[in-house]
Amino acid sequence: MSIATNMKRATIGGLAAAVAALAATPALAEVEIETAYVFNTFSFLVSGFLVMWMACGFAMLESGLVRTKNTATICLKNIALYSVAGIMYYLIGYNLMYVGVDAGWIGSFSIFYDGSLDEAALAAEVADVGYSTMSDWFFQMVFVATAASIVSGTVAERVKFWPFMIFTVVLTAVIYPVQASWTWGGGWLSEMGFSDYAGSTLVHSCGGWAALVGAILLGPRKGKYGADGKVTPMPGANLPLATLGTFILWLGWFGFNGGSVLALGSAAAAAEMSIVYANTNLAAAAGVVVAIFMTQILYKKIDLTMALNGAIGGLVAITAGPALEFSFLAIIVGGVGGALVVIAVPLIDKLKIDDVVGAISAHLVAGIWGTLCVAFFGGGDLVAQITGIVAVGIWTVVTSAIVWGILKVTIGIRANEEDEMIGLDKAELGMEAYPEFGSGSSSM
């Protein structure tokens, strides 16, 4: 038996003993139903607004990694996609994801989610559900915008605003909820044993697949790739802003993963949430450190943008199974996630797929790795995990290709060459994010 296995079992035994000791203490033996209701609801709400704060993180990260002439546009897209995602999830997405799935493939097509109507029946709800229904809706809603944010960063600097927003409507109303219903809604993947704690595949890989299809159909930015295969760097304009965005995402991820415990009304739930927080932090840190060392070795210089994406790769990787009791495993999961980002970014460039912020590498590639880790380190079924990865990939690629394809042949999805040259801020918004830089900023 390996040392790691022994240490893991010892940690599990220690945790179980501690929880049992808490339960045996007379003052902590039971929690009143209403108290548990309050704490569970509180967890959903606080975790939800932490995940909502990730929308700011994506906006800042992407604003820092695009050129100045496209900064205002990327800011607009991020606040618009979050708003549209929330409305579409209310109108149709939540019902497709959770209502009447029953081990099947899709939920209800009924319009509007009005769980707030049930709040009046508080006494029955406390006993039967254990949390406010609208707190749960809010927590689930903020996740859907993350998938759309992933697409935004990849296709930045050449996708037109309105076609992108139409795609966001379909992604958040149908594409994301349907595949998520297969697991979180109690659908067929859940029945076969597929596990994705907080969404390495259901959120991040889904967004990554949609981004990949969009990037392929859009084509690269002008001048990005030479005829000889040479890659022309197009560095972002504000790396401090990108760094701030990464830290905001890191903070929001505690709500993303920690809130996915889905309870805080017992000592066991509080203990699990603490483990999830610690493992989330360790995985992100490992992703950064590995990315720093790898870029130093490979390029003889440290790449800040790789370090930032290394953090995100580590966070995405641990998201599928952050409740590992042996926390050293979280370092391995996150470290490999960071390494995969460093490897995947130049590989995707060699394929002439232009991903402005590296989102495909950080979310899709690291998401696949993290989902497999549930089988490698968390006791999950490897066949079920692979099946889930493939099923979500096929669904998202096919549906995204249909939507992007229809938009491309009807209203068009790409800005014309002149608009791309002067920047989408001037072309679509008629403004500049940094007007004090003068007219020369359009060529940056």
Name of the level-1 CATH class: Mainly Alpha
Please state the second-level CATH architecture.
Orthogonal Bundle
Choose one word for the global shape.
globular
What is the CATH homologous superfamily assignment?
A: Ammonium transporter AmtB like domains
> Would you report the number of β strands?
0
CATH topology: Ammonium transporter fold
- Which regions have little confidence, pLDDT < 50, spanning 5+ residues? 1-29, 439-444
Distance between the termini: 58 Å
Our Rg estimate from Cα atoms comes to 22 Å
Helix content: 55-70%
How are helices and strands ordered from N to C?
Answer: HHHHHHHHHHHHHHHH
Largest β sheet strand count, sense and barrel closure: none
Number of self-contained structural domains: 1
Number of helices: 16
Structural class: mainly alpha
If you had to describe this structure to a student in words, what would you say it looks like?
The protein has one domain (32-443): Ammonium transporter AmtB like domains (Ammonium transporter fold). With 444 residues, the protein is mainly α. Helix content is 69%, strand content 0%. α2 packs antiparallel against α9 (239-258) and α12 packs antiparallel against α13. The chain is built from 16 helices and no strands.
Brief digest:
The protein is mostly helical and about 450 residues long. The protein has helices spanning about 5-25, 35-65, 70-100, 120-130, 135-155, 160-180, 190, 200-220, 240-260, 265-300, 305-320, 330-350, 360-375, 380-410, 415-420, 425-430.
